[in-house]
Amino acid sequence: MLEQNEVREKLIEKCKGLKIKYIAEQIGVPREILSKFKTGNRRELYPESLIALNEFLDNH
Question: Does the reported pTM lie above 0.85?
Answer without folding.
Answer: no
